[in-house]
Amino acid sequence: MQKRNWKSCTAVLLASSLGLLASAHADKLATIKEKNRLVCGTQNASVPYAYQNATSRTFVGYDVDMCEALAKGLNVELEHKPLSTEARIPELKMGRVDVVAGAMAYLPERAQQVDFSLQYLQGNIKVLVKENAGIKSLADLAGKRVCASKGSSSAAIAERVLKDSRIMTFQDVASCNLGLQSDKVEGFTAGELVLKRFENDSRQSANPSIVLAEPTYVERIGLVVDKGNPELLAAINEVLRKMDASGELDRIYTKWMGKDSIYKLNRTFKVEPVNAS
Amino acid sequence: MEFDWGFLGTGNYAQKLATGVLTTLELFGTAWVGGFIIALLIVALRAVPFKPLGMLMRLFVEYHRNVPTVVQIMVWYFGMPQLLPDDLRMWINRGQSEFLFATVALSLNVSAYFSEDIRSGLRAIPHTQVEAGRSIGLSAVSVMRYVTVPQALRISVPPLLNRSLILFKDTSLAMVIGVTELTYQVKAIENLTFRSFEVFAISTLIYLACSLLIMGLGAWFGKRFPPAFKV
């Protein structure tokens, strides 16, 4: 009895503080079609996924283009909603957004709370080294010092994958890069896009850096909808498959991460279930 | 809305929360003690009849009252090491410097407020007491030490308690520089599990419980050491 009281007490507390009204709802797809509007959430300051263009002040990025393609594929109007990291799941759960394209990686625990669509992007955690250091693979990093920024997922992954290396955590990625440039560490692990930017910057220097091809971890990224919307999820997956077949997904990838971008990456992922491997 | 607390038993989430609570309490404790000592120092220095020193203390207090606390924390963490030589900076960045800098920033911040609270307490003491103290041969410092400050502290208990509660909640600002206190851990757990409502409800309850405890301690202190006279 006491336990129950406590539980309802917290519920009331939260509900009042968030102005929250829990409501049972039918599949979102019907509402989207009826209102002729898809509310699609993205991050709000995450290059190149979703960020404000400095000159036009509009939101652009890979995820923003995904939202647009999704609305077009569902044949409805798009309402784009930039979200802060803390707000993205509550907004989805409270029904203020229909789908989140937030570069969110699949984790089994996350999948208990929300449903992931087919994979529409992959994120690689990689290692940056000096080109002349003779390090060609992750195995060559044995006994070497590898830097990761404090508290990052790259650091946690490095501890697990690079067991024979000495993982050092610095304050941020810039400090890590400084450590690599001044030979305090032999490797620097972070997301591929971050490393690519540092690799590009080092091109002009006498001793350039290079990103190792082999990733320490592959993040499988899907679009996210609230539980209990099988029809919406199926419709989204259908749009993703069509985009893959028509080459539109390739076009968006090339624009933001491929040869038209500063990253020059090649698309290697397939449109398949996020939990496939 | 259905809450499901079962996930706390899985993984190391409960442990993460526990270390978060501990770090928050450590941060609060060290910043409170540090801030209180600095505040007494400021009060003493402001009483010195030397104008430039008084101006300097006022500048210190005004900086800490008028610049956002989160900015002060970032200035200490990102700004101060820049003034150091490269090697020393690398060494600091490698260690767990964020707790140290957060403590320094919060101590200085709260000391500015504490000193004003104690000073207002001092102003409540009739000046005749100072005159009486001096006339029986006590030095200016002794008058403060034995006559005015002990009374002022008792009078200042309510505003000091008020500020202590704000300091307790301000510890969550240390998250921005990566101190793994409660709010940091809550966000980390939310990001891993997407159980936003549950984790934020838990942190609300923990902050509430600790704040109530601080209020209780303050009330006890106020009863145990009541002011010498009604103000």
Which residues of chain B sit in consecutive blocks of at least 5 with pLDDT less than 50?
A: none
**Sheet with most strands of chain B:** none
CATH-scheme architecture of chain B: Orthogonal Bundle
Low-confidence stretches of chain A: 19-24
**For the residues shown, what is the average pLDDT of chain B?**
92
| Rg of chain A (C-alpha, Å) | 21 Å
Topology:
The complex is a heterodimer of chains A (277) and B (231).
Chain A: H1 2-18, H2 28-35, E1 37-43, E2 51-52, E3 59-60, H3 62-74, E4 77-83, H4 88-93, E5 99-105, E6 114-130, E7 145-149, H5 153-161, E8 166-170, H6 173-181, E9 187-191, H7 192-202, E10 209-211, E11 217-226, H8 230-246, H9 248-256
Parallel strand pairs in A: 1-4, 1-5, 7-8, 7-9
Antiparallel strand pairs in A: 2-3, 5-11, 6-9, 6-10, 6-11
Helix pairs in contact in A: 3-8, 3-9
Chain B: H1 13-47, H2 51-66, H3 69-79, H4 86-94, H5 97-123, H6 127-135, H7 140-155, H8 157-170, H9 182-193, H10 196-224
